[in-house]
Input
Amino acid sequence: MSASLLIVEDEPRLQSLLADYAVHAGYRARTCNSLAAARQAFVDETPDLVLLDVMLPDGSGLDLCRELRNRSSVPIIIVSARVDELDRLLGLELGADDYVCKPFSPREVMARVKAVLRRHAGHTASAASGAADEDSPPALALHSEALTCSFQGQTLQLTPVEFALLALLARHPGHIHSRQRIMDAMYADHRVVSDRTVDSHVRKLRQKMATSWPDWRFIESVYGAGYRLELTAADDAQ
Ligand code: CA
Output
């Protein structure tokens, strides 16, 4: 059966746009325009993924996100009204799987939906089997005593800052880490560094890893939000 999306959005035009694209992409879509309706929809049938607007007539989507997270591992994509709100949302650690900003391209939203569902299915499968399944990509291992990472039998020496950066991302693979959180983790002394410092460390680390493992990509940038560890074959990466 096709995956079901619960679309919680109170702007009628956006709601029907998302629903149309979802159906076109092969999903089943149920739409709601309030928190109350979304809670009821959840009782009727647990969806495979929730697309959740933040500003709703009867309250904040963020409250619903926390609520759902407390009792379910359903993937949640938060739809935020503004790019500059993302940093605040990421700081709240809501447990959402991804974030999208308005105005969005529905095509991009569906690409995120697909990626989140795929990631979630992978996690569920490996959790259920109790071991990595044979189709899942090999894992990246970090060694804090030696400040190295290894992958497919090959080991790469990192600087302390690079190691701290990679260790942070690897702690929650697939989750987005804002530049602010990365800075806090990389510099325990809270010395003032700019966003660009983070970008430049990420760039160097990527280059280094690409030299050792040219067939793989490890760190994905999420526009306006930050970075996440996402292992993909280089020919899949755009
Ligand atoms: Ca709204």
Summary: The mean pLDDT is 84. The longest helix spans residues 106-129.
